[in-house]
Structure formats: structure tokens, C-alpha cells
Amino acid sequence: MHFTITIPQGLPEMTVKELLEEHFLIPRKIRHFLRIKKHVFVNQKAINWQSIIHPHDKITLIFDEEDYPEKSILIGKANLVEELYQDEHIIIVNKPEGMKTHANEPAELALLNHVSAYVGSTCYVVHRLDKETSGAVLFAKNPFILPILNRLLENKEISREYWALVQGVFQKKRQIYTDKIGRDRHDRRKRLVDNKNGQYAETQV
Asked: Could you confirm whether 130 is annotated as catalytic?
């Protein structure tokens, strides 16, 4: 894999080491490969690990197969994919109701398999939706971008909204619930209200 990234204006000056470790979140083993192979370039020039990068610099990273071995999965059906957005690093698709985001068994096909067939290479799940839920799902198109997207999700810099159709009559015309949501300690696949250890969630009705 070969990536060239332009440093944005707002990013402070830092060393190449700090950029790869703290901002690109590249694992230590992969950073070691990049350093000893001299596979990091700034503005097309070889650099050392303590070189300072500046806004508008172009950082080029070269990854060999041993750095990120491609994960092999069953190829699904590309015609089942409804693309919402795609660029060099990510793809967002609409998951239909009744389809799993990823397979639980080796011979099972799920949205991940179909998206990988659509893209032409193995993709990586950033987040999931339950089988019964439809909506937008984000996938990384390469393993390099995956931890960056995971951190954005954890820091809530990627936001998600869910819409639900319910039956019944509410006491008020408009209500907001802020009960925290956590995992069911008896079944990690399930979520429940856990105001002590759960994460903040807001439901508007």
C-alpha cells in the first residue's frame, strides 16, 4: 500500500515519530518496519524519525505485504451493495434490514462480504448495526485507516443517529430520555440501561 497525505493547516508542528504514533496511530511493529525500511518520505525526500513536519507537507508512507497482510474472507455479491459515499479510504453503504453487518461463522455471508466484493478488496468494519436494523454503515477500505476511524468514533467525532418506529401513546408530546446505555453482563451482544457504568445516550420522542 502507498499513501500520500497532506498535513492540514491546523495541525501543530511535530516530529515524524509523533505524527505516526499519536495521530496516525500506527502500531509499534509497523512503525519499526517503516523506519528500518526507510519507507517514510516528506515532500518526496527521505527523512529521519526526528524530522519536523509542517502544515502543507506531503507525507508518503509505503507499506509492504508483511506490514499489513491482507485478511481473506468469502466474497459476497456486489449487486447487493447500496453505496452512499466512497473515497480512497472509506466506503459508507446502506445496510438493509435482515442482513448481518459481519459474519459470525466462516462460511456465512454478511454485509462485509458484499462490500468487499463491491470494492474489490477486503474491507474492515468500523461499527455495526443489529441484523434487524437498517441504515448507514462505515467501512475502512484498508487496515491503515481503521484505527484512526476507531478513535474518531470513540471520541464521538463521528456521530450517529437512530430512528425508531414505535407503537403506543406517550404521556407528553415531546420527551427526552438520557438514560445511559451499557452492556448486559449476561449477554455481551445485548445492551440495556446502566446509569452507573453505561455511556451517555439521548433519545428524543
From this structure: yes
In degrees and rounded to multiples of 5, residue 199 shows phi and psi of -100, 150
Q: How many CB atoms lie within 10 A of CB 138?
A: 20
Q: For residues 141 and 130, give the distance between their C-alpha atoms in angstroms, rounded to a whole number.
A: 21
Phi first, then psi: give them for residue 102, nearest 5 degrees.
-140, 155
Pairwise CA distance, residues 118 & 184, whole Å? 35
| Cα–Cα distance, 87 to 3 (Å, whole number) | 13
**Residue tagged active-site, from 57, 67, 87, 130:** 130
CA dihedral for 80, 86, 90, 92, sign (positive or negative): negative
Rg (CA), the chain: 21
Does the pLDDT at position 153 exceed 80? yes
Model confidence over 43-93: pLDDT tens digits? 999 888 999 999 999 999 998 888 887 788 899 999 999 999 999 899 999
pTM: 0.77
Using the 8-state DSSP alphabet, how is residue 129 labeled? -
Query: 123 exposed, middle or buried (CB, 10 Å; 0-12, 13-18, 19+)?
Result: buried
* DSSP characters over 45-57: EE--TTPEE-TT-
Q: What is the pLDDT of residues 101-139, one digit of tens each?
A: 999 888 899 999 999 999 999 999 999 998 999 999 999
